[in-house]
């Protein structure tokens, strides 16, 4: 499994809820979070009331994360 899938499993979040664009864009570093929000908002996969766990892994042990409710 990918690192994203492992994190979903450890957090008890169904893998079907994982939104990402790695297949299309690979890792764009800090741009991943706004890009994924834009792509999925336009596609209608993010709706009012949804809770989003946004995280951006970086080089080494760096990681940024936030929990939002739309």
What radius of gyration results from the CA coordinates? 12 Å
Order of helices and strands: HHHEE
Most strands sheet: 2 strands, antiparallel
Q: Could you report the average pLDDT, rounded to the nearest whole number?
A: 82
Work out the helicity level: 25-40%
What sort of overall outline do the alpha carbons produce when their principal axes are compared? Answer: globular
Q: What are the segments in which pLDDT stays under 50 over at least 5 consecutive residues?
A: none
Number of contiguous helices: 3
End-to-end C-alpha gap: 29 Å
Strand percentage, roughly?
15-25%
Global structural class: alpha+beta
| Number of DSSP E strands | 2
**Strand line-up of the largest beta sheet:** 1-2
Give your account of this protein's structure.
Helices cover 34% and strands 20% of the residues. The chain is of the alpha+beta class. A hairpin with a 5-residue loop joins strand 1 (51-57) and strand 2.
């Amino acid at each position: 499994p990918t690192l994203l899938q492992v994190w979903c499993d450890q957090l008890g979040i169904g893998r079907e809820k994982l939104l990402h664009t790695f297949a299309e864009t690979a890792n764009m570093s800090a741009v991943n979070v706004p890009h994924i929000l834009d792509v999925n908002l336009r596609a209608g996969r993010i709706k009012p009331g949804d809770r989003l766990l946004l995280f951006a892994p970086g080089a080494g042990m760096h990681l940024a994360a936030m929990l939002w409710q739309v």
